[in-house]
Amino acid sequence: MKGLVAPPYGKGPLAEVVPSLLAGFGVPGMTDVLGIAGPTPVCLLLVDGLGWQLLRDHREDAPFLASAAGGPISAGFPATTATSIASLATGVAGGEHGVVGYSFAVDGELLNALRWHRHGVAESVDLRSVLVPEEVQPRPTAFERAARAGVDVRFVVPREQRGSGLSRAVLRGGVVHPVLGLGDLVARTVEALGERTFCYTYHADLDTLGHVYGPGSEPWRHQLRFVDRLAELLADNLPRGGALVVTADHGMVEAGDRIDFDTEPALRDGVRLLGGEARVRHVYTDAPDDVRVRWDEVLGERAVVLGREEAIAAGWFGPRVAAHVRDRIGDLVVAMRGTAVVVRSEVEGRLSALVGHHGSLTEAEQLVPLLVSTGSV
């Protein structure tokens, strides 16, 4: 697959981060695959959208992060927030936890997993009562297992994430500390770090500015400087012997060639539902062979189009795919190469207008940092 890289599941993906850290707390069943277990307490800071290549390209804007120990790991597929946070929280890939993209089919609904709303419709339809988050993702989380072993698990997250569908699906097992901005994010995290605490802290704004202005743009670089200072503040306020671990959920590319599903009859013909996002699409169809021929003709070298079973066999969704997850994966799975995107100008107008996108299997999207700093105060 020229220009694409399959995630190295079992050899250092994002799903191994929390189990590796919890091995340092002695949580049963947790193994330090990544070699990062050690000091406690731990603050795991997830910076949404901080790709490894972007960090290296703009290291002068992030001197603290650029000098921290560590290197790149793989986000997993699709390289998108909902899937990555589910993988981080459960310790398994999308094929097992079942959050297989930004949007995907579940029980006849097209679920937007970030908002837990019906995707592709003008009105906002909350699906939490129809697609109960704890049932859509029923696996025990690594955080729940840690709490049962006596670890004090805390979540420092934006206020709007408290009680959200995705939080209910994957951020189970800890106490939520909702925050409004960078100031109380630092304060709540520092307050949370007791002797046997695992604190998951999330920051979203870098991703937002990458989407709106483009990764590497001037607004994005200014935000990266704030993120670098955020990480430095957290590291400076760690308890003696504690650790700050910084990672991300995906990288990002600036969209180049835009192919519009809503205005291209050859792409629409025979498609029942279209999930995913601009860089990776789940295509649901009753005629996969015919639809695949048309998508291949339109997209050519700009994408790899695989059937569901081929994508599973290629390991895109991890080493195992649970029976109840298989139908959530598109009959066809489309991974974009280069900077091409498949947008929906009519149905996904706001998303289609974004500059930055992610989700596919390029190194720019797949590689994220795993950085460790230890406290001395």
From TrEMBL:
Gene3D superfamilies, per the entry: Alkaline Phosphatase, subunit A
InterPro entries: Alkaline_phosphatase_core_sf, Phosphodiest/P_Trfase
GO molecular function, one term: hydrolase activity
Domain of life: Bacteria
A Pfam family recorded for this sequence: Phosphodiest
PANTHER family documented for this protein: BIS(5'-ADENOSYL)-TRIPHOSPHATASE, ECTONUCLEOTIDE PYROPHOSPHATASE/PHOSPHODIESTERASE
Record's protein name: Type I phosphodiesterase/nucleotide pyrophosphatase
Lineage, opening ranks: Bacteria, Bacillati, Actinomycetota, Actinomycetes, Pseudonocardiales
